[in-house]
């Protein structure tokens, strides 16, 4: 290469590098200035404001939220108020902007016990609920954010909850640190929702929430997070904020903020909480989120060395405004209005006004309008800035600039002529400026000296809603309206809220409501309403709210169990089957057309289409009204396969992932296809050949149903050579098939012996010896096909058991033609594998009654929850409405359905969108929790919590996405050999000792050797997850031992319990979470060696075929438990369950789900009021064993003080001679209780009987608390 060539090559490369550098620099610059979209908002402010709409109503109407001091916080109101300030610790103001019900909280919803809720600052509780509401307002499912890079930025000032007396309240001891730290305000949200972006609590005093928004915007632009919650919260738990500022004479005597007014005489304290959901504008557009406003620019600075620590600094305020404008790429004249800090102080307001005049007031053609929401709410402190943002977002939306209240005249301390700034002394329309959107500035200045300014912009214009145009001129198709809640009471409350919303918003479209609800979290109690119009939706919601149901609606509660899809066989066909689905669902239509094309090609090659169908296409035969043609065997079988395959693909598109598939006769070929055994072309070839060859088998056969068991018929059928059992559909439900004469004779025998009989209308004797003539040619077709191992577990209709390698043999499908259909055994097998939801995929409910009959027989003597049996289509019902009802029934019992993929709202015309409604957010079921100082009570007389509560451990399906943390290896201790029923299990006590000895030895060895691997202890049937389960004593003992070990080695030991009645995970995987994770790279080391996971895959579908046997089951369970990240996990029906503490529903309370059947039958539900309080019996004697010990004494005091127990019998080995017994008795007597102390060894049956006989009949024994025990504890390594 010459020198010139080298030079040219260098210049080309240098030019390319320069262009790439410029591109990167441009990207960095654009990224740094990328607008941030506000996509959701939620708030609570004084004046009963609970939503952004209610805040707008308050400010637009010129109302205020100022009221007297709260009466539910334990404040000594008489001593606190002193107009003359003659006493320390008093205030000359007794009014402010207070949040009503600030102590109210739905602890159950967030998994908190009453004790923890009481010990938790109400600011933490409020931010939890408001964050959930903000995400719902944004159309973001909060439960779907787990493990996402979502940040939380919350402004919070010095929390004062529990300060000074927390240690004197034993009920809160141990929880006050996390309950009262400001850092936990943001961290609590991240913890509750599983968010893994930054969590930052910001305290810059009054500017905290705007600084939080600034930090969130920066984090989004830098890529630290992809979504963020930003806001602030303030609740004054004590009156110290008032007493402090009263001493400085900084408060307005009438409790009103007179921002920028001549009459300004001080600030007024308020409270509130506001949360914004923000993301990059480009992301908001890509996700289809409604943009409420755009954050164009933000800035934060400091006053520095001003003329006082808390004195505002005008030049610093000017600088922060100019910095925000520069960040937004705007000039002052581009902004129309400023929502000011405006606290109503004689010093601060004039300084702020002058800064605004010097920045925004210069070079304008029209004035900058100035206002302050503090005139409506008071100064809500850490929540003040976000209140201004929400006000301005709403003002942009409604085109109105609200009045600033309490302005007698603009402040004479401000030179208003120094710039074009005007105070909003009355409401004004917000005029548009041609060529640009509306814009507003929002200011917050903290008395810490930290200043913040934010510039908001009207959102880009969105395309109009596609709903109205789509609905015009044609009848509306039914759509699913899905509602869910944590409890049945909340479910009804949500329905009531939605009904009220629909009644108030006449323009609200059913489709918009339905779409909005699909974006909500799928909680435990669920309902689905198939509706086509407003009237139907209103009726359905009102019925649900009243505890009743419309006939088409379904309601239920999530319960354990796997999912099976079963495909109908011949006889289920009907004219026009699938026609409505074909028109409504493009996924169905594409799959149907593909199958029809392949089937028709096969049939046309043999002239079946011209000979039998008269040239009519297969598609027309199935979807049209060709009388009688579809009932011909060849077309019936082809049609059923095409419809059922398309129906399954529709289910797939909606997120339904079965754990098992099966089919009845022909339906098993469909099952084999969807399970991956046959590709579509090969499956169509097999179906076409089967139907065609059966069609030409000589007629003359007959079939009949007989109501008796197969074993009863066997001796009779042995005497005939041309009749056989064709199907065992359910216990006592057999079908025979064969030569007509022989069938008639068997039927006559059955009649004579009292069995029900029914002849079947068939063209041929299927599954009988009469099929022999077709077998040779059919075998040749089968031999030409390619078979594969199933990817979804398949139950064989020939054996009634889980299919193995035989399903891939051509000979299996030849036998399949002649052998009986063992459908009852299929159902029994599926139930044995933990299937709790049976979905029939076919044009009619052909299999549903057979499944129900079999389950009724199999479950007759068990305590398991009844399975849900669902027919996805029925011949006499609208196909779309029935599909919604069927999927709804499956979803309400726990089957995963992705309602957001429903085609009605995913197939809108290009460029069109479905509108976003501000639907009512979740109806939290709140109770009052407030930590009171010792000796202080609320005015209502409530104690630490306003009612006694009882809790229990409840197992709930794991909703978390799966972590990829299950890497490396683990030591697995498998104790399942000692489970009840295991070989050589022996006596219960022996099993307990053996199991504990083995596990303890392994744990000690692990600790002694300083093994760094995590430990997984596997048990079987150790815990009761579902109703009717009885724990195995030996396995339960292991569980208890290991739970104690977990406290010694936190985070290092995991417990996983297998189903006592499910022998293996053969043919299935573990289903859990919303994301999949491959476990193939997780080598599991057991105590007896290595177990390889091979190609197992753990994920949401749970639909793979894994290893069989105990080794595979344990390996899969271990991988699932490690991936789940929970310390205790149970596997039931292939799904992960985790323990949670939940309130015990009292008799007659909300939890009466049984009155609503799984099939959606209407019924009355318990009263919508609060659940009855669990009351301790006080009209008799309560006996406490170990009553003179530390634990017994604590319980005794609690029962007397909190529950009003008046008759106690304290029992211990030493009785009255026990140390402290006399003092305890005197203390309890002083509290009003009658106390007896007795010496008794409660392990001595005779001595205990004598003690019980001595209890007075006037106060009979009503309750027993067992608190006795001898402490002989030690760490694991010291135990033997």
Automatic annotation (TrEMBL):
Pfam families according to UniProt: Acyl_transf_1 (PF00698), Docking (PF08990), KAsynt_C_assoc (PF16197), ketoacyl-synt (PF00109), Ketoacyl-synt_C (PF02801), KR (PF08659), SpnB_Rossmann (PF22953)
GO molecular function annotation: 3-oxoacyl-[acyl-carrier-protein] synthase activity; fatty acid synthase activity
Chain ranges of the Ketosynthase family 3 (KS3) domain: 33-458
Cofactor(s) it depends on: pantetheine 4'-phosphate
Keyword annotations: Acyltransferase, Antibiotic biosynthesis, Multifunctional enzyme, Phosphopantetheine, Phosphoprotein, Transferase
UniProt GO BP: antibiotic biosynthetic process; fatty acid biosynthetic process; polyketide biosynthetic process
PANTHER family in the cross-refs: FATTY ACID SYNTHASE, INACTIVE PHENOLPHTHIOCEROL SYNTHESIS POLYKETIDE SYNTHASE TYPE I PKS1-RELATED
Protein's name in the database: Acyl transferase domain-containing protein
